[in-house]
Amino acid sequence: MKKMLAVLLVLCAAFAFAGDPGYYFGELMFNFLGADSALVPYTLLDGTVDGSQTMPHGVVVDPDGKIWIGFYGGYSNQFERTALGDTITLRGLHCFMPDGTPATFSPIEFLEFEDGSKDTIYAESMYNGSCRGLSCMTTGEILMTAWSTIYKIDYETGEGIAMWNPPMDGYAAASMTEAAHDPELGLIYAGHVGSLKPIYVLDEDLAFVGVAVDTCPTLHRSIIARTRPSDNMGQIFSGTIWNGQGIFVYESDDPEFTMFELVDTLANYDVETDSNTISYKAWPSCLDWVDMDEGVLIYGNYFSAKVYTDVGTAPNPPEHRSKWVMLDVDTNEEIASFGEYYLSGDIVDETAWDSLGNLVPSVSPRGASVKAVGDHYEFVVADFDNSTIIKVVWSETGLEGNDKYVPYGFTLEQNYPNPFNPSTTISFNIPESNDIMVDVFDLAGKKVATVYNGFMEAGTHSMTFDASDLASGTYVYNLTVNDFTVSRKMTLVK
Questions:
Q1: What is the pLDDT of residues 334-346, one digit of tens each?
Q2: Are both 124 and 146 inside the same structural domain?
Q3: pLDDT exceeds 50 at position 18
Q4: 49 is in which domain, residue-wise?
Q5: How large is the C-alpha radius of gyration of the chain?
Q6: Which 8-state DSSP code applies to residue 38?
Q7: Are 445 and 389 within one domain?
Q8: Closest residue by Cα to residue 364 from 414, 317, 304, 303
Q9: CATH assignment of the domain containing 330
């Protein structure tokens, strides 16, 4: 892994979306708005099914290759509390075997811990309920945040090991981030999803150690941590979602006894034009390590991400929304990105997947699990709005004989405006100069227009499509380069 990353980091000098630093393709693993909803049913007391769980809010792959998924929406089962005379709705943690079948202990709804204490994960609880994040310790144990409770779970058996609730300190029980494990120091960090609240330090048994950050200046959804190998500096990285200020970096030279200080902000950059300075701000909805020692992380950029200018009109919505981005935290340079904004509510079924041409549909990233395999990486990523789990294979060079790979930098944006009448703008980027075609089809597959057919220089391009001669309806526009085609839908309303 380190040798591979060393090669990749040389390529970072060409940042600003130049060059061709890699290839990727995606495979749909689970679609919980489609057929895979049958894997996560909501079962009533009488045994009938009345819905399913949706909105994955965390995914990890354990050392045995099992896939753990925590859900924000829906329920797993009803449960009657006879002693209390009521019925509650459970929100279980799911675990799937590498072949996609549920583990024998899944879903996990009731936990008993080594000290004899017990807990139930249910929607009506003010302390747990919906999953807010998953992470995996280097020894394999699963760390699950459910509302304001953190659980440590045995990945082999699904049994509880420990649990922890934060001191209220005058706060009501509230959503927390996932738990971030620093294996070098044997510490775990977790904070509140909100501003002006602390980040806590726990040991690996989830015993309270202290406070790492007294008050976080802005709202954050996700954190990760490490001890920097070069100088043993403790670092916490915090993603600022919903207000887009990038990734905050906190540091402490003695994390067990000295509080962390905010020292830097990452993942923001400026682009100078003839009339504007365009400022790109990251809105990270999740953070995960690609290589902790090398300082390479992956963050998912929230779909509401915006850009700002000092003069004139900003290009909103921007190209960087909903992207998954690999970032070198020591140099603040992007290594690569993948993911294409996909309209929330459009179900990613197999037909839609085929039309996307292996581009990774994304709306609201909510967790990634990363594994190095030979000369490539395998990312398992969760998307909240699409209710999908996707495996993304990323390589510096692509795999010989595999025609699924999409060149880094190849993008077809959603047309804007959409819906439109009668004209709209189609934008795309090609990493190499080539002959291209931009065609429009009706839903029956009949070509109704050719927007462009000819040679195009490498880079980002926009063109106007005038649909004055077409009837109202939904159409598909294709970008074809060589034998590779990617498609998107657009709607004409007259």
A1: 988 888 887 655 6
A2: yes
A3: no
A4: 2-409
A5: 23
A6: G
A7: no
A8: 303
A9: 2.120.10.30
